[in-house]
Amino acid sequence: MKNILYFFAIALLPFSTMAEHHDSAEAEVIAAGEAFNNAYATNDVDTYFDFYTEDAVLFFFGARQPVAAYREEWTASIEAGGGVEKNETSDVQIQMMPSGDVAVVSSFIDNRTRSEDGETSTVTAYETEIWQKIDGKWRVVGLHYSEFEPTE
Predict the structure, then answer these.
(1) pTM of the predicted protein model
(2) pLDDT, tens digit, for every residue of 103-139?
(3) Would you kindly state where each structural domain of the chain is located, as residue ranges?
(4) Is the dihedral of CA 22, 28, 32, 35 positive or negative?
(5) Inter-residue contact 53 to 143 (CB < 8 Å)
(6) What is the mean pLDDT of residues 8-22?
(7) 71 with 45: CB under 8 angstroms?
(8) What one-character-per-residue DSSP string does 92-104 give?
(9) What angle do CA 84, 88, 91 make, to 5 degrees?
(10) More confident call, 149 vs 48
(11) DSSP state of 136
(12) Distance of alpha carbon 42 from its chain centroid, rounded?
């Protein structure tokens, strides 16, 4: 009986180590996600786009968007007086892949933007981000953003 208990203790040890590793990786993803969203909310273009890989797959407003084109468009909008006034996430869910270097993060977003002519637009959206740890840094390799009408 004693040998059986030792066997199970040894067999289950890797799972506790993996859980600790995932807890640490998840905390890193949370911190990266908060910095990513804060950079977006404060119109910090360089910091925001530094989180994306050059070949990230972005999908919003009904089409795929190349990162370079998105950056160019967003930079021009901010320089012309547009930008984000509010970007608050809620119900953030994180799924770590078993390897510990890929995470899927999903959340609801309450967003208010200002156009170049000063008009504001408030939307509610759902966003899914795919993060990968590359050369020691968590980067966005995929993002899907969909706006929707909130239900009361």
Answers:
(1) 0.83
(2) 999 999 999 999 999 999 999 999 999 999 999 999 9
(3) 2-148
(4) positive
(5) no
(6) 49
(7) yes
(8) EEEEE-TTSSEEE
(9) 150
(10) 48
(11) T
(12) 16
Q: What percent of the chain has pLDDT over 90?
A: 82
Number of residues assigned to the chain: 152
Task: Give the sign of the dihedral formed by CA 88, CA 95, CA 125, CA 120.
Answer: positive
Residue type, 20: E
89: closest CA among 62, 115, 127? 127
Q: Which helix or strand (DSSP H or E) is residue 112 part of?
A: strand 102-114
Query: Comparing C-alpha atoms, which of 53, 48, 38 is closest to residue 77?
Result: 48
To the question of domain 2-148 being in CATH 3.10.450.50, the answer is yes
**What would you measure as the largest C-alpha separation in the chain, in angstroms?**
76
Sign of CA dihedral 48, 106, 77, 85: negative
